[in-house]
Amino acid sequence: MTVIAKAWHSASRTDAGKVRSGNEDAILDRPELGLWAVADGMGGHRNGALASRLIVDRLAEQACEGPLATRLAAIRQCLHDVNRQLSQALTVTTDCPDPVMGSTVIALVVADDRAACVWAGDSRCYLWRGGRLYQLSRDHSLRQQLLDEHAMSAEQVAAHPAAHALTRAVGASERLQLDILEFETYPGDTLLLCSDGLYQDLPADALPAALGLPSASLVLRRLFDEALTGPARDNLSAVVVRR
Predict the structure, then answer these.
(1) Is 58 exposed, middle or buried, given 0-12, 13-18 or 19+ CB atoms closer than 10 A?
(2) For 225, which DSSP code?
(3) How many C-beta neighbours within 10 Å does residue 220 have?
């Protein structure tokens, strides 16, 4: 096997949390291919778990060689194919009265000194660089839309009963819209891919405190320890990637 990303190291974990009996999240952790992803399924455990697993399994099958643009195009096509499959495959039956089968996705791909994150939904990508934290992804949620449109104050949005509703997801509609951010990487960079179950209940200082630790495994352990001391009402998933 050709090793694409020798300089990168990663650690990953997923947990059902304290409330839900099943886990609809799925993770992809392939540092040797320079490819990582977190997918957070929706549509009830059976459908959500199937959707998120399909995404990461199909991403793992993508060609891992070539420049970033080539790899990025393959990942985009893969996600569009999965979206088409999910939107066509689900039918309303007595066993499945709610026709929902979809998933968020946040994927990271690296090639040489360049990287790109690709996403749909509210799973996130953070970058820790030079002692500063940056959120690279922007949520596809009603909350973020209302804030962007200045339709409500932050306090009003926080109290909105549908604030966490997604405006984009793989499988949610016939046409998938993906956001993509390309950027340069540098030695010492640490990236965090995570589902909303991890970040939503963490205090503001938890991410910087964890991401400054000396290894990906220590970062991951600190984040999950902190999240699981809280309510952990949702599934928790994260991949920590360090150059």
Answers:
(1) middle
(2) H
(3) 20
d(CA 80, CA 129): 31
CA proximity to 62, closest of 77, 41, 84: 77
Whether the Cβ atoms of residue 135 and residue 8 lie closer than 8 Å to each other: no
Domains assigned to the chain:
9-242 (3.60.40.10)
What the block records as the tokens of 75 is 């990942």
Hey, what are 84's tokens? 């088409």
DSSP 169: -
Q: Report DSSP state, residue 93.
A: B
Q: How far apart are CA 176 and CA 84, in angstroms?
A: 8
- Residue 86 Cα distances to 20, 80, 83, 106, angstroms: 24, 10, 5, 17
Which residue intervals of 160-215 are DSSP H helices? 196-199, 206-211
Going by C-beta distance under 8 Å and a sequence separation of 6 or more, which residues neighbour residue 72?
A: 109, 116, 118, 180, 182
Compute the distance between CA of residue 26 and CA of residue 83 in angstroms, rounded to an integer.
16
Question: Which tens digit of pLDDT belongs to each residue from 188-225?
Answer: 999 999 999 999 989 989 999 999 999 999 999 999 99
> Could you tell me whether strands 114-120 and 179-184 are parallel, antiparallel, or unpaired per DSSP bridges?
antiparallel
Does residue 80 register a pLDDT over 70? yes
Our CA angle for 116, 134, 106, nearest 5°, is 40
Is residue 151 pLDDT above 80, yes or no?
A: no
